[in-house]
Specification:
With about 950 residues, the protein is mainly alpha-helical. Among the domains are: about 1-200, Rossmann fold, CATH 3.40.50; about 205-260; about 260-365; about 480-540, no CATH class; about 875-930, Winged helix-like DNA-binding domain superfamily/Winged helix DNA-binding domain (Arc Repressor Mutant, subunit A, Orthogonal Bundle). Helices cover about 65% and strands about 5% of the residues. The chain contains 48 helices and 7 strands. α29 (about 575-585) packs antiparallel against α30 (about 590-610) and α31 (about 610-630) runs parallel beside α33. Bound molecules: adenosine-5'-diphosphate (ADP) and magnesium ion.
């Protein structure tokens, strides 16, 4: 990387450079911790984060650890720098640069990811997951040959993007010979805090050690002064070394009073300040450049041109012990980060600007870094620099960092010399703020700013879109949001050129989501009108969203091929702006499973970046998929996270989807209070505001709860609010069809049930997805009174791919099993009921499991063996005792055989009964015998079920 001339000059620089004194005093206990860590790391990988106050010796300890690494180990180092721009992956770049040649050990995709992220090659930014895996794979590959030691200093100041990858690595070093050692300041918050890695706090030096250190370095200090410094330094080595230096000769000899006591860190900084102030101006300027560059790039020393500084300017700083060229790392390094902070604090605005200008000239090959330096150097607005920021803002957004993107857009606006550009960039910020970041307050402020300046229709449209999100998300005011947006869209499309701008696509997407939420025919009309006007220019994602949600029965079938192709095309996509609309289009036609991987990528980037509103949406989509595919505990975790985020960010309206999933799961599990509380809340919000989708979600959850409770009348009433029998004209009807039909049948409304089932059948929704095929066939079978129902059930269960929808599948099996039992086909009935019971048990769908178990009992089987093993297995001792009891032995006899008291035997048997679901000894044999061998003997007939009622 070094240019020729740099290398030549560096040879000179080496001769004047020296690092700080490296003799470690004391620290035996800490060294022992490090040694043990290194041993463990060398054996099977380990992590350690060292905490401590500034100056406590963390860096020195890391240096010592790096030197103590086993022979042949590969030591990789990086450090965070306070004044470095928030530049993606600069930390990772430092760390992995020495391994550049080893990138060839990786497969193509991983190598490309690292090359692009670290700036060795151009290309689309890799997803964080791919990059994290690439970095980990690289380290593991290198560690095959020799141990690897990662040493990270000043952790909280590393860039966020690198931290995310490093966090990923830190949690996975186990098993490989990778050591992960980091240092962090006490009290400085860091993303790593949450990872729960092993920590070690670096305490102050022991008083004896402090004396040793001060004696070694300042042997001539008067004892009284030494004591005063010892007490003031509080065991902080940096203070022990710096405080004496700051004293005048008379002070050192105790002839003069010492300066007043200041908090230690401030005191140290002021010591450094006086040293910096004594340097020649050029040296100060050089230090400032080193501070603001953040990477210690030695090319700074040979920078030519107006802002030229040279290696000679380093000499005074080096002699004052403030900075030096580290001969090992070939980086310009401050004596201590406190010096760096102080240098920047002391610089005049003008000096900072010219340092940034000089650094901008040095970073032409790194657009984000250069844009930052140029902006900091700019005295007045500058369109070129503003444009660079705008581009950077889009790049940041595509990486999933909405908050970072908003800040960069704002910066671009500040730098814009002309109002039109400024307005456009402010509107960009407002839009991302309202849409992805969900920072409604800031969005409102930005909109107010835009109001004050001239703007063009394009800007008005962006601003209106932001305002629409704001109105909807803040107040649930769908009417205002819709009206605002439609007016702006109409105005923008009136003078429309041949190619609609991205702002129109985004506005239409917002309008779609309002229509989808409002779920009223009149809301959709203006959207259709605009789409007609645009013809082929409508974005494919919008078209898919509309086709699958407005009226899926009519629209979805024709769009499915395109939807499936769009989902396939997400395989390597990481831009949330592309993934989310396609996933939304997949919701009602059961395509979320195919979107899962891309959604998980959005989840990760929205979490690591800062995009709360996106995060809530993606969690909602994933929890829907979890719900449908029977991963209910996973769904609950996600919806709790989403609801918590919504509370934190005051985004209540965005959280109705997770509330819906929560209400469904609670309903299916028989937790009716929760269902009631959640749906009450949803309806309190949605009814007065006429938000149709949320109302339907609430009613559907209540219908499911009522079905579970066996309150079929209420189930019918709620389900028919979602859609009337025979009407499948809204997407929620597709989710609720089975509920409506079952409720109708069991509340004595067979003709309504038939009407709905027939409508489902005739509408062809079965062709949309295996789930809808299952629902259509299952509902038809439920509604059918004669024996042809049996054939219909068989057909339903044979639908390929339908068993992904486990709860629906189990419900169809249960209904089939019930029907078979009533036909006295007990064996066949059991073969449906048992797997249904298994699924209900696994899901924790208690009322449904009870129903299935009760049915099973009615077939004469109290508790099937399969169920027992699927739930709570007998302990070996219970099994043994139960087997003996089943063979006819009394408790006493069993006790004698197993050397137990008969009381203990009784207790074990009792446990076994509970698990087997029996109450008498006589039932034991049946409950324990292998199914095949068990003879069917009809138990006392249960009262017949309600199906025939
Ligand atoms: N145990 C020690 N013995 C000798 N010098 C030390 C010791 N600990 C720290 N120092 C010196 O104190 C100064 C501050 O230490 P440093 O490692 O930079 O602190 P931190 O990284 O915790 O801010 C450095 O000059 C370092 O050489
Ligand atoms: Mg340090």
């Amino acid at each position: 990387m070094h240019t020729r001339s740099t290398v030549v000059s560096l040879d000179r620089a080496d001769s004047v450079s020296r690092g700080p004194d490296r003799d470690l005093v004391g620290r035996d206990g800490d060294l022992q911790v490090i040694r043990e860590f290194l041993d463990r790391a060398g054996d099977h990988g380990d992590c350690l984060v060292i905490f401590g106050e500034p100056g406590m010796g963390k860096t020195m300890l890391l240096d010592t650890a790096a030197e103590a690494a086993p022979d042949g180990a590969r030591v990789l180092r990086a450090r965070g720098v306070q004044f470095e721009a928030e530049l993606c992956y600069s930390g990772l770049h430092q760390l992995l640069l020495p391994l550049h040649e080893d990138f060839s050990l990786l497969g193509g995709a991983h190598r490309d990811a690292l090359d692009v992220a670290l700036g060795f090659a151009a290309g689309e930014a890799p997803s964080r997951l791919v990059l994290s895996n690439a970095a980990l794979t690289l380290l593991q590959a290198v560690a095959q040959a020799r141990p690897v030691l990662i040493v990270l200093d000043d952790l909280p100041w590393l860039d966020r993007a690198s931290l995310a990858v490093l966090g990923f690595i830190a949690r996975r070093v186990g098993g490989g010979r990778i050591g992960f050692l980091a240092a962090s300041r006490t009290g400085e918050e860091s993303f790593f805090d949450r990872l729960g890695l092993p920590e070690h706090e670096l305490a102050p030096l022991h008083p004896d050690e402090a004396i040793m250190l001060i004696q070694a370095r300042f042997p001539a200090l008067a004892p009284a002064v030494r004591d005063r410094i010892l007490s003031e330094a509080q065991g902080n080595p940096l203070a022990l070394l710096e405080l004496p230096l700051a004293l005048s000769r008379p002070q050192r000899a105790a002839l003069q009073a010492l300066p007043p006591v200041l908090p230690l860190t401030r005191r140290l900084r002021s010591l450094f300040a006086s040293k910096v102030a004594k340097l020649p101006i050029a040296s100060q300027q050089l230090l400032l450049m080193i501070a603001l560059d953040g990477r210690g790039d030695p090319r700074i020393l040979v920078q030519q041109g107006t802002h030229s500084v040279s290696v000679d300017d380093l000499v005074p700083a080096e002699q004052a012990g403030l900075a030096y060229l580290d001969t090992r790392t070939r980086r310009l390094t401050f004596r201590h980060p406190l010096v760096c902070a102080q240098v920047v604090d002391m610089a005049t605005v003008q000096a900072r600007r010219s340092a940034h200008a000089a650094l901008a000239a040095l970073t032409a090959d790194q657009p984000d870094r250069q844009a930052w330096h140029l902006a900091e150097a700019a005295i007045e607005p500058d369109e070129h620099v503003a444009g660079l920021h705008e581009q950077a803002a889009y790049r940041i957004l595509r990486r999933g960092d909405a908050v970072g993107s908003v800040a960069t857009f704002r910066r671009a606006a500040e730098l814009s010399p002309n109002n039109l550009e400024r307005g456009r960039r402010l509107a960009g910020a407002a839009y991302i703020c309202a849409e992805a970041a969900g920072d409604l307050k800031q969005a409102a402020q930005l909109l107010a700013e835009i109001d004050e300046i001239d703007h063009d229709p394009n800007t008005s449209l962006r601003a209106a879109t932001a305002a629409a999100y704001l109105a909807y998300r803040e107040e649930g005011d769908i009417e205002t949001a819709h009206r605002l947006l439609v007016a702006a869209i109409e105005q923008a499309t009136r003078g429309q050129g041949p190619h609609p701008p991205p702002s129109l696509h985004d506005a239409l997407h917002c309008l779609w989501s309002l229509c989808n939420q409002g779920a009223r025919a009149d809301l959709w009309k203006p959207l259709y009108r605009t789409m007609d006007g645009l013809g082929a220019d409508v974005s494919p994602a919008l078209e898919l969203c509309v086709a699958t949600t407005a009226d899926p029965v009519r629209g979805a079938a024709g769009a499915l091929d395109r939807l499936d192709a769009a989902i396939e095309a997400l395989a390597h996509e990481s831009d949330p702006g592309r993934i989310m609309p396609v996933a939304h289009a997949g919701v009602f036609v059961d395509r979320l499973g195919g979107c899962r991987e891309p959604l998980l990528r959005v989840h990760r980037s929205a979490r690591q970046g800062r995009a709360p509103a996106v995060l809530i949406s993606v969690l909602s989509l994933l929890s829907y998929d979890d719900f449908w595919s029977g991963q209910w505990d996973a769904a609950k975790q996600k919806l709790h996270e989403a609801i918590g985020l919504a509370e934190t960010h005051s985004l209540g309206t965005v959280a109705t989807a997770p509330q819906h999933v929560g209400a469904l799961i609670a309903a299916a599990r028989g937790d009716y209070d929760t269902t009631r509380a959640l749906t009450d809340e949803m309806l309190r919000w949605a009814l007065p505001r006429q938000i149709g989708a949320i109302q339907r979600q609430a009613w559907a959850a209540r219908a499911l709860g009522a079905l579970g409770r066996g309150d079929f009348e209420e189930a019918y009433q709620e389900a028919s609010k979602v859609s009337k029998p025979g009407d499948l004209g809204n997407p929620h009807a597709l989710w609720c069809a089975l509920d409506l039909v079952e409720a109708a049948v069991r509340s004595g409304r067979r003709s309504e049930a038939l009407r709905h089932a027939r409508s489902a059948h005739e509408s062809g929704i079965a062709s949309l997805s295996p789930r809808l095929a299952l629902v259509t066939a299952g509902a038809t079978a439920m509604a059918t009174a004669d024996d042809s129902a049996l054939r219909l059930y068989e057909a339903a269960l044979a639908i390929p791919g339908a068993d992904r929808w486990q709860f629906d599948m189990a419900r169809v099996r249960l209904a089939y099993g019930e029907r078979l039992r009533r036909a006295r086909a007990y064996l066949e009935s059991r073969s449906q009921l048992r797997p249904a019971l298994d699924i209900f048990e696994r899901l924790g769908a208690r009322p449904w499991a009870d129903r299935a178990a009760q049915e099973l009992r009615a077939t004469g089987q109290s508790r099937p063996r399969g169920w027992v093993s699927a739930c709570v297995p007998l302990t070996p001792q219970e099994q043994q005792i139960a087997d003996l009891a089943a063979a006819g032995l009394t408790n006493k006899q069993i006790g004698a055989r197993l050397f137990l008291s008969h009381r203990t035997v009784g207790a074990h048997l009792h446990g076994a009964y509970r698990k087997l679901g029996i109450t008498t000894r006589a039932a034991l044999r049946d409950a324990l015998a292998p199914e095949q061998a068990r003879e069917f003997c009809p138990a006392g007939e249960q009262a017949d079920d309600a199906l025939s009622a």
